[in-house]
Specification:
The protein has one domain. It has seven helices and eleven strands. The longest helix has 12 residues.
Length: 239
């Protein structure tokens, strides 16, 4: 049945809307005046969401963002003060025996497919806010709905918003001209950083870039980063 709906969607929508084909007609949303998705129904059932507007400046001080580079193996996390909140991304959950996560970001759909054990562990924690996309939420509900305990914060790629046309990389600056919350690279109009995640989050090929935009929106003043290795890219992740 899903493949039938996909074909119907392709025949009734322009190519610029193709990124929605796996969501229609199962996903129903409403948006707030500020742009973010306010309510969500998936396959006829309401899905509670964290209000992104209420998250603005809800935090302060320091936060640790844990990436998954091999250098993570050399870090002594016992030195981390218990008072510092921690955001994990993807496989950073393998550090859960050393640090306590209260924030998490997963936007890689292949990770949902390849690491179901990590997904189940993260979503079963009632004290975690998980930032993910609609495609991620669909995978959680379809595969692990009975285990869902965490709070869901629905975020979007600014260039692939739900039920809105795709924004091409070379058209980002034109599409978002006049939005004061966005910061564009002076020489690269396809590189942008959002200080208001309600407009969407801009991708740069790594989940850490998404996480940085989220943490800035939350209000943290100092972001400590572990495992963001900028060399030895051929080496496997720490886990």
């Amino acid at each position: 049945m899903g493949s039938l709906f996909k074909q119907i969607y392709r025949y009734t929508h322009r190519r610029a809307f193709r990124h929605n084909e796996n969501l229609w007609p199962f996903t129903h949303i409403t948006r707030a005046a500020s742009g973010e998705i306010r309510t969500l129904k998936y396959k006829g059932k309401a899905v509670p969401l964290v209000n992104l507007s209420e998250l603005k400046d809800s935090a302060q001080g320091e936060v640790l963002l844990t990436a998954t580079g091999p250098s993570t193996r050399r870090i002594d996390f016992t030195l981390l003060p218990k008072s510092i909140p921690v955001m994990g991304v993807n496989g950073a959950w393998h550090l859960s025996d050393k640090i306590k996560f209260s924030l998490y970001t997963i936007v890689d759909m292949e990770f949902y497919d390849k690491k179901p054990d990590v997904i189940r562990s993260v979503i079963s924690q009632a004290d975690i806010v998980l930032f993910t996309t609609m495609h991620g939420i669909a995978k959680i509900l379809d595969r692990h709905g009975a285990e869902l305990r965490c709070r869901l914060a629905l975020i979007e790629d600014a260039c692939y918003k739900i039920y809105q046309p795709k924004v091409a990389k070379n058209a980002i600056q034109q599409a978002w001209r006049g939005v004061p919350a966005l910061r564009f690279h002076p020489q690269r109009q396809d590189i942008c950083f959002s200080t208001d995640i309600r407009h969407g989050i801009f991708d740069a090929g790594t989940v850490v870039y998404w996480a940085l935009q989220i943490l800035m929106w939350l209000g943290f003043k100092t972001i400590l980063i572990s495992g963001l290795d900028m060399s030895n890219f051929n080496q496997p992740r720490f886990y």
